[in-house]
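Quick question: what would this complex look like in 3D?
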Amino acid sequence: MGFGRSATVTSASTTCEGIVQRLDAFGRRFEPAFSRLVAAPAGAPPQLAEAMRYSALAPGKRVRPYLVVRSCELVGGAFDDALPAAAALECVHAFSLVHDDLPAMDDDDLRRGRPTNHKVYGEALAILAGDALLALAFELLARGYDSARAGRMTLELARGTGWEGMIGGQVADIEGETQAPNLERVRYIHERKTAALIATACRLGAVAGGGDEPAVEQLGCYGRHVGLAFQIADDLLDVTSTAEDMGKAVGKDAQAGKQTYPACVGIPESRRAGLAAVEAAEAALACFGQPAHDLVELARFCMDRKH
Amino acid sequence: MGFGRSATVTSASTTCEGIVQRLDAFGRRFEPAFSRLVAAPAGAPPQLAEAMRYSALAPGKRVRPYLVVRSCELVGGAFDDALPAAAALECVHAFSLVHDDLPAMDDDDLRRGRPTNHKVYGEALAILAGDALLALAFELLARGYDSARAGRMTLELARGTGWEGMIGGQVADIEGETQAPNLERVRYIHERKTAALIATACRLGAVAGGGDEPAVEQLGCYGRHVGLAFQIADDLLDVTSTAEDMGKAVGKDAQAGKQTYPACVGIPESRRAGLAAVEAAEAALACFGQPAHDLVELARFCMDRKH
């Protein structure tokens, strides 16, 4: 659901080079640890574990894990402190993509050039692999932290994922296709479908690093605005970019009758709203000073990217 | 996934009357509290909340919540201590039924005489409602207990539900349809698909009531064997009962090529295995003495029931 694997970062504009390189370097460090954390246990059916790992370990920018780790480090924690939560976030993200791609949902055959989960494993197994990835996310939290911290994180993750969070946003997004464009509605959708889980990533990172409540709140505020900026940029790219730039069909939102910022307020006003979200994200990090520089860059990257 | 709403308890044989009445009385007490615990929050799309509540609050025996509450009480806890965990278990159970009924899975139009979730709300919303019920289960644990207890419970619930638990069993069950009947395989399936979540119900109840590790283990052991006995009985009823008794078509397992006890070892040996599981369940409760009488009765009811 948004902010994901649909946009590549391999040839971003030069202003974004720093953050692109940082994400690449992070990915190389995160990947082997993530693969170990989601290693199939002896008690799981091999075919299920394979389907889960097919999607969890699919190539991706790993933006959510990056946000978990950097939020953790910003409040004084270490890379390893953040790992289980980062892996949990990526499992939730993978679960959402597997279910989004199903025939009854977006009915996609390809994701980043690879066959979607149900194309490889069939619909039944894809549904169950998605389900199991969601359960695994909570298991990773519970295994990775002491009980008290795991309990706190469970609340954050369940809220960011559930009926008031990402899944709620997905439902509102589908319902919005049959409704007239409305700014309040599109904001409601974007805040849940994309921004809620991004905010959760930042908040979990802060909790993992032992940050105090104000730090958790500030990082969550940053994440909400980054998620909103990213989704507005996504809306804009769908109407302004070429299929060549995007590496996928454009104009799909309007065709599907999606609730988008441009459909509600036009292109210039959408740009302004996106930049305002980036500024709000930056402002939320002011208290962290220079060490938060890369997160500021990431927020700007959201609006600057060409695909 | 088994042990659920497919068998009614309104006209059980007289030997089971006690436990049937107890379950009915429990249901009347649990229902309003459960409905309050899964009340739609302001931040959730109403249509999603309606779909979730449609299945969560559908008529059912509430065996899992009963096991949570009684396990909690057995170790010295109170009804209210068990409520959030009982509600969480029922949400997981409801989620599994919604996804099981999907066209890509069992493709069922009716469940206990009511249209299945996707028949009422469409496939996309049914998939998402199931997802959100699973997330809600963890949210209920995290909201209902102090962080340390919630963290511990999250681990139990995630394991009982995930790739090594119920969902793993569901995958093995589907795969088993194309494999020759094999006792090791059928036991693997039953232990996960049905028994894992029953055991989790008992374990969570014990944790909710502040039980020590041996108590948690004993109640979990009871739950595993009860779940196994129930599933063996289910296998037997599918080959020995009449459609009239069951209120649904019989002989479906053989038709679908399901892995069942009777298919592996025949009817008499299956009966013996079921009774052995009941005895093992009873033995696990010996340390609790007379107060565990109703749980013993419940175990016997599993094998005695006629539908």
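Answer marked as accepted. Residues 1-14 of chain B have pLDDT under 50 and may be disordered.
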